[in-house]
Amino acid sequence: MPETRHLTPPAGKTPEGKGWLPHGFHLGTHRHTDGQLVYAAAGGFATTTALGTWVAPANRVTWTPPGFDHSHRCYGRTDFRLVVIPAESCGELVAHPGVFSVSPLLREALLALTDPRESRPGAHRRLRAVVIDELAGAPEQSLHLPEPRDDRLRAVTDLLHADPARPETLSELGRTAGASERTLSRLFQAELGMGFLRWRTILRIHHALVHLTEGRSVLDTAMACGWSNPSSFIEAFTDVVGQTPGRYQAELNRPG
To answer: Angle at CA 240, nearest 5°, toward 237 and 241?
Structure first.
């Protein structure tokens, strides 16, 4: 596996631009006074805040509003693109971090905005307005993995983070955490906004994205992440990510 590199950016002005980052690159916790969009034209990455983790393969963009502590980690060699949304324009977008699908128009606008050259004076300002329009009406996607506050629930989610392929039921996991299935089911809905099975599926998809980015086969990825057969994995992956794992893997090294 390539060497993991860590970087903690200085506080201050929100960066904008592009660059190729290696697999495992970690940009430490920081915050910005402006909003920030991060897009992987190739590869993939995760954005983590106190609200949880968002994974963005090459067909998604993450949004972090001003003032949120956040960090990034790259999976695979990643064509990393950063676009600033000035604080005065952030009111048109959601007030919390999120993930959105990247339409062909949005992709081209993000690529152009991260090119330091402007085709005409004011082109970047106009393109930024297009990006805001595209995102303002776009539905949020489901690659957000929220994290719990309750100690009993965290005991269960920590077990699954360590091994997403664990086959135990919520009742069986609850015995380890010292909580009943009923209590844990209520906590999943109250704290995380989803049931146990949905949360575990998204966790497994997060791990699957990493395995696929590292070059593992669809079959090996399915087995490593807890699916009993590749067909059920492909169905779940397509439902969450919006494309099959094979298609996702084929597009990883598409040039930006």
So the answer is: 75
- What's the CA gap between 26 and 9, in Å, rounded? 11
Q: What is the largest CA-CA distance in the chain?
A: 64
Non-local (6+) Cβ contacts of 156 within 8 A are 170, 173, 174, 176, 177, 179, 184
User: Could you tell me the sign of the dihedral formed by the alpha carbons of 100, 106, 107, 112, in that order?
Assistant: negative
Contacts of residue 195, defined as CB under 8 A and 6 or more positions apart, other chains included, come to: 185, 188, 189
∠ CA 84-90-94, nearest 5°, is 115
| Token pair belonging to 49 | 């805040």
pLDDT in tens, 3-57: 444 444 445 555 678 999 988 899 899 999 999 999 988 888 889 988 888 888 7
Dig out the tokens for 199 from the structure: 């949360």
> Residue type for 122, please?
G
- The model's pTM is 0.75
Percent helix, percent strand, percent coil in the chain, to nearest 5 = 40, 25, 35
Q: How far apart are CA 227 and CA 165, in angstroms?
A: 7
Amino acid letter, 190: A
Q: Which two tokens stand for residue 225?
A: 């992440």
CA angle 97, 102, 108 (to 5 degrees): 120
pLDDT digit string, tens, across residues 108-131: 999 999 987 767 788 889 999 999
Both tokens of residue 229?
């057969």
Which pair of tokens denotes residue 203? 């966790």
